[in-house]
Amino acid sequence: MDLKVQKRIASDVLGCGLGRIWIDPDKAEEVSMAITRQDIRRLVSNGVIKKKQENGISRHRARKNHLQRKRGRRRGHGTLKGPKFSRYSRKERWMNTIRPLRRELKRMYGDEEITTPSYRKLYRMATGGAFRSIEYMKTYMKDHNLYEGGRNR
């Protein structure tokens, strides 16, 4: 028996799509007799026609992927989106370079390994981006005899 019209009216009355309308198969005969909206409303109140619950979107896959990311999976080159510095900013990279350099300069100055003029010169050079690492800075110091008293260490 064809209940297309009744289903369409019911979907309009209940404010949902055709796929969410459930009609009691045992009362199909009674439903086929309903031709007005009022008839459909009566059947809804009697529980012959019901609105099915909406399908949710399962979080199972999202949770699983999140756990994997926490363990370091799914982080390869194929996954990366956006430019290089959107993930690791230029400023962050600069801070991770300059802080150890300044810390080392401060330590050497405190231990009197370098003089005040040498310290100031090296500090300004580091700020200018002349050294990419502590090792590179120490090599420069050896080459230019900037250790205290001009001694190489």
Descriptive account of the structure:
The chain is mainly alpha-helical and 153 residues long. 56% of the residues lie in helices and 4% in strands. The chain has eight helices and two strands; from the N terminus they run αβααβααααα. The protein has helices at residues 4-14, 28-33, 37-46, 60-70, 84-87, 90-110, 116-127, 134-143, and strands at 21-23, 49-51. A two-stranded antiparallel ribbon has the order 1-2.
Sheet with most strands: strand arrangement:
1-2
- Determine the CATH topology of the largest domain: Non-ribosomal Peptide Synthetase Peptidyl Carrier Protein, Chain A
Oligomer: single chain
Strand residue content? under 5%
Tertiary shape? rod-shaped
Mean pLDDT: 94
Gyration radius over CA? 37 Å
Main sheet, how many strands, which sense, barrel?
2 strands, antiparallel
Total beta-strand segments: 2
Name the structural class. mainly alpha
Uncertain spans, ≥5 residues at pLDDT below 50?
Answer: none
Compute the separation of the termini in Å: 98 Å
Count of discrete domains: 2
| Text of the CATH class of the largest domain | Mainly Alpha
What is the number of helical segments per DSSP (H or I, 4+ residues)? Answer: 8
What are the key terms here?
mainly alpha; 50s Ribosomal Protein L19e, Chain O, domain 1; Non-ribosomal Peptide Synthetase Peptidyl Carrier Protein, Chain A; 2 domains; two-stranded antiparallel sheet; 8 helices; rod-shaped
